[in-house]
Every structure is written in C-alpha cells, then in structure tokens.
Amino acid sequence: MLVEYILDILGQFYMSTELKWFIYIIVLILNFIAYYQNPVLRTDIPKCFGMSCRWFSFITGIGAMCIYLFGLVGLWYVAPFSSNMPDYWYIPVIILSYAIIIQMTISVRMYTDNGTLNPPPSDLWGIRDRIRLYTLILVLDTIFFHQMYLDGGQTLMKTHRVWDKYIISRFGSITNFYSFALGWFGVVGLTFDLLSIKFIADFDACDYNLPKSWNY
Questions:
Q1: At what angle do helices 127-152 and 17-36 cross, to 10 degrees?
Q2: Which one is predicted more confidently, 117 or 166?
Q3: Does pLDDT of 97 surpass 50?
Q4: Local structure of 16: helix, strand or coil
Q5: Radius of gyration (C-alpha) of the chain in whole angstroms
Q6: Higher per-residue pLDDT: 145 or 165
Q7: What's the pTM?
Q8: Is pLDDT above 60 for 172?
Q9: Beta strands of 16-140 (E only): which ranges?
C-alpha cells in the first residue's frame, strides 16, 4: 500500500501543470543558449546550403522557436497555470523571444580561419558541453512529449482500431486542436533535437572556414 501511495503521488506530480510549465520554461531558456552556442552562427561563409551560415542558422533558429512558441500557446490553452492572466498575455513573450534571436544574430562577432592561432571565443562552449546541452534539451522534450501523450490517453475515442487508439485519439483527437497539435508538434521538436546533436557531434571547423582550434 505504501509503495502504491508513493507511486500515486509521484504520478500526480509527473502529470502536474506546474511540472509541465517548469519543463517548458527551462527548455525555452536552454534553446536560447543552444542557439547562441551554435558555432556556425559566427561565420558568414556561404557553405550552408549555399547561404551564409549565420543567416541559415537564423532561419533554422526562427523555425525551431516557432515550434516552441506554438507550444507556449498550446500549453496555455491545454493546461493554464493561472486563471488571472490577461487575454493574449503570451504575445509580448513571443515578440521578446524573436527579438532575442534577432539581436543574437546581428550582434555576434564573425570569425574566419586566417592561418594563425585563433582560439575560440571565451563564451563558446566546447563540443562535449554543447552535446550535453542538446542532450538535456532532448531529455526534457521527451518528458514533455510523454506527459502530453499520457494526457491524450484520458480522452481516447471509443474504438478498437490501433490507428485511432495510438495516433488519432491521442492528445484529445483532431477535434481538440490545441491538445492534438501541441502533442504531435512535439515530434517535430524531438526530430530537431536529434539532428542538432548529430550536427554538433559531426562538426568540423574546417568545413566552415573556421579555425581548427574550434574543434575541441
């Protein structure tokens, strides 16, 4: 009985609105850090699908931020943390988030390999630390996705079809747009996380005309 009681308490905490918002806020902050820690943000060489790597990073950063800010709106409608917030309070948060990304992009210093000993910037983390950062984001995103998935199981359609049970009716079904979209947009976020980890692990400064000393 004691074990069941403890597991029940832990389950309630795991599915609590407070934990969902805590995880979301931490992941959002970590994504700002991850964007700034992207080494190719610091070069204008056109080796990222024919574009300047800085502006390619900006486009992908804005795309990733769109997913997380959509999550902000969706989470608010699915699991609001307060009933006293004004309507559309999240709009200033969205504007500020985009402003931060833009400011990082235009203010970051550009680098190039000039053949001399050129150590990486003091504010750029090493490859191992960047992998740890993205791994932490992946873990937290996975937990958040799992929470949304379990929430969806509470409103399953009365059907025995596997497609309905595990896909369509998860997250409240398509008829509950915010819940459904919030959950499955998480799949896109997890995909971004995995691609980011692979990119950092395979990063070679020479491919972007950056000093070899950045391969650390």
A1: 150
A2: 117
A3: yes
A4: coil
A5: 20
A6: 145
A7: 0.85
A8: no
A9: none
Interval 51-92: pLDDT, tens: 999 999 999 999 989 888 888 888 888 788 988 899 889 999
Start-to-end C-alpha separation, the chain: 52
**DSSP for 159-207, written as a single string:** ---HHIIIIITGGG-TTSHHHHHHHHHHHHHHHHHHHHHHHHHH--GGG
- Name the residue with tokens 């499955």: 184
Q: CA 17, CA 93: separation in Å to the nearest integer?
A: 19
Side-chain-side CA neighbours of 191 within 13 Å: the count stands at 9
Question: How many domains is the chain partitioned into structurally?
Answer: 1
Summarize the confidence of residues 125-133 as an average pLDDT: 94
Q: Determine the structural domain holding residue 143 and report its residue range.
A: 2-214
* DSSP conformational letter for 120: P
At 194-214, the pLDDT tens digits run 999 999 999 999 899 999 889
The one-letter code for the residue type at 122 is S
**Calpha distance 185→112 (Å, rounded):** 37
Q: What CA–CA distances, in Å, run from 31 to 14, 20, 82, 120, 160?
A: 22, 17, 25, 21, 39
Q: Which residues contact 1 (CB under 8 A, 6 or more apart)?
A: none
